[in-house]
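> call design_seq(struct)
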């Protein structure tokens, strides 16, 4: 009894397993005189057992008893482990189960062996075998078997407790390492919310040492407006819940900081004894979120609301004022002379100047107006309370006058002026359209000498309900990918070879089907949406051209029609340059078609613009030539590559002598000016032959092909009939 008590004490004190098993072996040998105790441990990976060294057997025998298979008829121990029951060998020399181990056992002087499996009491898991060897043939008594089973049970207890203890020690070490080295603050409360302990990260995040926080309630470290939320989260965790939330802590200095906290219960044997907390400082993340929210709504340079917020406020003002039967106006401002200052003095000075402008405008406009910076040096103003147009004009005059006073920036006096476009709500335009109207008016003001204002003018009949709906649908068409480009070949008149393609926009309306460009293009020009549509067409044409190049198709220049509004925008060349860079299309594969009326307006400015385009490799052709009034002197100086005969001259060229004369005159004049001539709308062989006879260079029309989606161009012949 004394020995058993000592063994249980050794197990409880977690003494080394080898020592405990050695003591169990000695206990068995006391109970079983003349026995040599063998204790073998089970390896579940190899499904074998191996003798635990203990000094009772020779080195040779100990080695031979390693890796013994757990299988039937493998000695006494292998069989006992296999059958999970007592196996008795009274005479090793005669027992067939000892085949393979008989010689080494007999050489060791062993004659008999009794073996029982060592199994865990809880689930019957095999742990090993406990056996006694004898130097003479002998069979066990019932008392011997009882003692043998008792020793095996003690060995099972020792092995299981030792294994559990090491698992516990391993788990504790891992937990402690995770606890101490976790980058987040880890801490625990008692059930009343008083802090017990925390890791190093908790002290670092909160700014309190253990001596300062231990024994204090969590609310002492939480900003007052967030204490109720924190208490509710703690109560949820104390009731068994798991909750993650954001709160605000307070440093000992009183400075607040943002925290993300997770609380969950500490459970011991099914009972909640406290609450764990894991916290991380998210002050930097919250600051980034605040900055992102700011940049999503405000201009980073001036702090003014951006376009998104401005449109929202304009939309709200339109809704309210229309319901009240009152008017709203928009003023679009563009600073004259800002670009040279920005380029000459640098962006820092330029940004400071923009801030000064914003401050002066805000002070002048007061709180009843909304001021926004859209891009670069362009601002827009919402005038929500307009009684008459003269009121808007007075505001514009006051702004232009205020901007004439010099701005002091870094010791320099900066002089600016502005061009202002004015647009009044017509009762049906959407917010973006009203801004576009003011933008269009601003461009007119700038073209008339700058430092002035101009009202948006729209000479047309009142829009029908159908046109108003179509306007709205057109605004959504690009977002919904309803627009697409078709391409019509431009053919060498003599050889029939491809010389280019013209991009023509098509609109597949989800309810109305195909809508003619003759319907929606004029509508887009009226509303200013033509700028956005034109930008989309230009980009898509360049993308398609580049895609055909990558796919190995014939590569020819693509011609894109450019509207008056788009061509006259100050940043047009920069837009073309950016699109070419983004799509990768070489400039020499892009041709822009512009009507002669556009080119003749502000001819000197047009010539400069075309030179800038030519530097990009982009060519410009004169579209619908002969339908407008052109100054031959300016036409001579324009760096254009070709002229395009209007379709009205081609339609009856075979029957109308006047048209014959006009076409021949244009071809002759163009050739003298080193310009190629394109005839569009060629539908018959007779028209083709007549134009070739007159020296026309390039032909386009249904005679060769209708406009096709880009994927179908590959189906066309490489060369149309040669007429040489």
């Amino acid at each position: 009894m004394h020995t058993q008590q000592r063994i249980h004490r050794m197990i409880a004190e977690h003494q080394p397993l080898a020592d405990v098993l050695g003591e169990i072996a000695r206990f068995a040998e006391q109970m079983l005189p003349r026995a040599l105790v063998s204790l073998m441990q089970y390896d579940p990976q190899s499904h074998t057992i191996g003798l635990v060294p203990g000094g009772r057997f020779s080195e040779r025998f100990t080695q031979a008893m390693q890796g013994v298979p757990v299988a039937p008829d493998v000695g006494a121990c292998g069989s006992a482990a296999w059958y999970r029951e007592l196996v008795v060998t009274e005479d090793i020399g005669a027992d067939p189960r000892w085949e393979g181990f008989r010689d080494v056992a007999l050489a060791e002087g062993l004659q008999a062996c009794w073996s029982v499996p060592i199994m865990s009491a809880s689930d019957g898991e095999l742990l090993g075998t406990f056996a006694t060897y004898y130097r003479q043939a002998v069979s066990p008594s019932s008392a011997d078997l009882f003692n043998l089973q008792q020793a095996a049970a003690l060995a099972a207890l020792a092995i299981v407790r030792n294994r559990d203890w090491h698992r516990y020690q391993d788990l504790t070490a891992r937990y402690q390492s995770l606890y101490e080295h976790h980058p987040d603050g880890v801490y625990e409360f008692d059930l009343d919310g008083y802090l017990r302990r925390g890791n190093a990260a908790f002290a670092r995040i909160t700014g309190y040492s253990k001596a300062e926080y231990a024994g204090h309630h969590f609310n002492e470290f939480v900003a007052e407006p967030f204490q109720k939320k924190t208490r509710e989260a703690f109560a949820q965790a104390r009731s068994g819940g798991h909750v993650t939330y954001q709160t605000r802590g307070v440093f000992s200095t009183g400075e607040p900081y943002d925290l993300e906290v997770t609380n969950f219960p500490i459970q011991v044997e099914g009972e909640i004894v406290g609450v764990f907390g894991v916290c991380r400082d998210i002050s930097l993340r919250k600051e980034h979120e605040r900055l992102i929210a700011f940049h999503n709504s405000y201009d980073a340079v001036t702090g003014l609301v951006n376009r998104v917020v401005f449109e929202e406020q304009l939309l709200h003002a339109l809704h309210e004022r229309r319901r009240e039967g009152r008017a709203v106006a928009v003023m679009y401002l563009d600073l004259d002379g800002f670009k040279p200052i920005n380029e000459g003095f640098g962006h820092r000075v330029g940004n400071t100047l923009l801030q000064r402008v914003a401050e002066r405008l805000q002070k002048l406009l007061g709180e009843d107006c909304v001021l926004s910076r859209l891009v670069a040096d362009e601002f827009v103003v919402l005038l929500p309370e307009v009684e008459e147009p003269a009121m808007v004009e007075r505001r514009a005059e006051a702004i232009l006058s205020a901007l004439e006073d010099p701005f002091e920036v870094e010791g320099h006096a900066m002089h600016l002026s502005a061009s202002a476009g004015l647009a009044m709500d017509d009762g049906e335009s959407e917010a973006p359209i009203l801004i576009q109207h003011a933008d269009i008016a601003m461009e007119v003001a700038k073209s008339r000498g700058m430092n002035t204002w101009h009202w948006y003018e729209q000479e047309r009949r009142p829009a029908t309900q159908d046109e108003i709906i179509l306007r709205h649908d057109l605004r959504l068409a690009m977002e919904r990918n309803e627009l697409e480009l078709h391409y019509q070949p431009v053919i060498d008149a003599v050889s029939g070879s491809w010389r280019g393609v013209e991009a023509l926009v098509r609109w597949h309306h989800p309810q109305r089907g195909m809508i003619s460009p003759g319907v929606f293009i004029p509508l887009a020009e009226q509303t200013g949406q033509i700028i956005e549509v034109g930008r989309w067409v230009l980009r898509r044409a360049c993308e398609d051209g580049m895609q055909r190049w990558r796919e190995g198709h014939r590569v020819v220049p693509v011609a894109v029609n450019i509207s008056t509004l788009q061509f006259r925008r100050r940043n047009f060349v920069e837009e073309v340059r950016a699109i070419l860079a983004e799509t990768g299309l070489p400039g020499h594969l892009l041709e822009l078609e512009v009507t002669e009326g556009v080119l003749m307006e502000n001819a000197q400015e047009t010539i400069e613009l075309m030179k800038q385009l030519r530097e990009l490799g982009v060519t410009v052709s004169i579209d619908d030539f002969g339908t407008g009034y052109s100054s031959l002197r300016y036409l001579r100086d324009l760096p254009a590559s070709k002229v395009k005969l209007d379709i009205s001259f081609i339609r009856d060229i075979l029957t109308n002598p006047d048209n014959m004369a006009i076409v021949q005159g244009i071809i002759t004049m163009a050739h003298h000016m080193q310009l190629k001539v394109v005839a569009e709308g060629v539908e018959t062989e007779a028209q083709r032959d007549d134009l070739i006879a007159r020296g026309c260079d390039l032909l386009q029309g249904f005679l060769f092909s209708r406009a096709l989606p880009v994927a179908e161009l590959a189906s066309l012949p490489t060369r149309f009939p040669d007429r040489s």
